[in-house]
Amino acid sequence: MALEPAPQTFNLSLSLRRYFKRELVPLLADLRLAIVLLLTIAAFSVSGTVIEQGQSQAFYQANYPEHPALFGFLSWRLILLLGLDQVYRTWWFLALLILFGASLTTCTFQRQIPALRWFSRTWNFYSQPRQFQKFALSAELPQTQMSQLLPLLQQRRYKVFQEGDKLYAHKGIVGRIGPILVHASMLLILLGAILGSMTGFFAQEMVPSGKTFQVRNVFDAGPWAAAQIPKDWSVKVNRFWIDYTPDGTIDQFYSDLSVLDQSGQEIDRQTIHVNKPLRHKGVTLYQADWSVAALRFHLNNSPVLELPMAPLEAGGGRLWGTWLPTKPDLSEGVSVVTKDLQGILLIYDMQGKLIATVRQGMSVEVNGVTLSIVELVGSTGLQIKADPGIPLVYTGFGLLMLGVMLSYVSHSQIWALQTADSFYLGGRTNRAQVMFEREMLTLLEQLAPASPAESKAGTRI
C-alpha cells in the first residue's frame, strides 16, 4: 500500500515576514509615498485652519448651508460626515500621521543609517587605478609620495585612514547625520501631535473676583483627556482688575490667582495677564477675556446688597446691565448700565429715561431712596489648556533646526593610491562642489608644484 505524502504545512508567519520585507518595507521607504503623505497631511491641516473647529451643528448649518454650498460642494453635512469640524482628532487624520511616521522610520533605518555606516567605514579604500576614473575630479601624478599628501589633508581637518599604499580621508561626516536628525525630529513632532490630540483638553471659565472654581467647562478634549483634567486642585480668583490708558481704553487686565489643594491650602499664587499665563501640573491658565459680574450697593442704610449684571446687546460696544428694585414689592426700580470696570454707571427710570450718572463710591437719590454704589465686581475670562505633546513638539522643532543646519555641512571624501610609477588622487563631495574643486586643485598644485606637464593624465573636472 503506497503511502500518501504528508500535506505541506503553510507557515503563515513566515509568509507575512517575507511580504513585509519584500513588499511593505520598500513601499514605506519610498520617497514618493512620503511626499504624497506629507502633502495630504498639509492639505487637511489647512482645512482644519480654515474651517472652524469644535463648533456646534447649528453653527455649521448657519455658516455652511447646503444651498448654495461653498465651492459648490462644501456644506455642513459634508463637514460633519468627514469630521472636518474636528480634523485633528479624526481616525483618518491620525492614521495619516501614523503612516507618515512609519514611512519616515522605515526610510531612516533602511537608507539613512546604512548610508551613514557606509560613509564612516575606515576600510573604504580603492586599490585599482581604474577606480579613480569614475571621479569628476581626479589626477594621476608622477613623482609624488603618500607622505606629501598626509600633512596637507590633516591641515584641512580630514580624518585620514591609511593601509599600506592606499589612503582614504573624509570630513564633514556630521552632514550625513543631518537628514537622520530631520527624520527623528519629524517623528517627535508627529508623536507630540498625536499625544496632544488624544490626551489634551481645552476649557473656558468666566469667574468673578473672590470665587473659587474647578475646571468644568471643557469644550474640546481628546478621548483620553480625563486624566489631564484637574480633580485634586482648584483655583481661587483673589482679584481681577483692569489698567486703563489716559484716554479710557484698556491697557492690560490682570488676575491674581491662587492654586488650592483639596484641603483648601494655597500651594501656588501668581498674577497673570495677557502673554503671562499660570502653569501648574501640566495645565496652563491664560488670561483671555473679562466681564462685569455684579453690582454691590446700599439702599439707604441697608447692608451691602449684590445683584448680577448681564451682558446687553449693543451695536457700539460691550454693555452690562441690571434692574435694581427700589421698593420691597418690586413695583418700582431703575436700570443700571455700565460699559467697563472704571466705576461709571448710567441709571435709567422705568420709561427708559436717563436720570443720573454715578461713580463707584458715590450716592444718588432715586425713587425716594438713597442708592450708594459700593463696587463693580469684575469677572476674569480664563482659557485653560493641557497638551502633553507640547514638550515633544518643541523638542522636535529644535532637532529639526539643528538637523537642517547640519545638512548644509559638506561631506567630502578623498582617495589616494600609490603605485610603482604613479600616484592617483580623486575625491567627491555631496554639496559645495565649487569649493571642493578649488580645494582639490590647491592640493594638486601643492603636490606637483613644478609643472602641470608632469601629470600623465592631468586633472579631470
Architecture blueprint of SSEs:
Elements: H1 12-28, H2 31-50, H3 57-63, H4 76-82, H5 91-119, E1 137-141, H6 146-155, E2 159-163, E3 166-171, H7 174-199, E4 201-208, E5 212-213, E6 218-221, E7 233-244, E8 250-261, E9 266-273, E10 278-280, E11 283-299, E12 305-308, E13 310-312, E14 319-325, E15 333-338, E16 344-348, E17 354-359, E18 363-366, E19 369-386, H8 390-407, E20 412-418, E21 423-429, H9 433-447, E22 458-460
Antiparallel strand pairs: 1-21, 1-22, 2-3, 3-20, 4-6, 4-19, 5-7, 7-8, 8-9, 10-11, 11-12, 11-19, 13-14, 14-15, 15-16, 16-17, 18-19, 20-21
Helix pairs in contact: 1-5, 2-5, 3-4, 5-7, 7-8
Would you mind describing this structure in some detail?
Residues 31-294, 364-440 form the ResB-like domain. One of its GO terms (biological process) is cytochrome complex assembly. Required during biogenesis of c-type cytochromes (cytochrome c6 and cytochrome f) at the step of heme attachment. It is a multi-pass membrane protein. Its main location: membrane. The chain is α+β, with helices and mostly antiparallel strands. Among the domains are: 14-113, no CATH class; 137-160 and 414-460, no CATH class. Helix content is 32%, strand content 33%. The chain is built from 9 helices and 22 strands. The strands form 4 sheets. Strands 4, 6, 10, 11, 12, 18 and 19 form a 7-stranded antiparallel sheet that branches. Mean pLDDT is 85; it is low at 450-461.
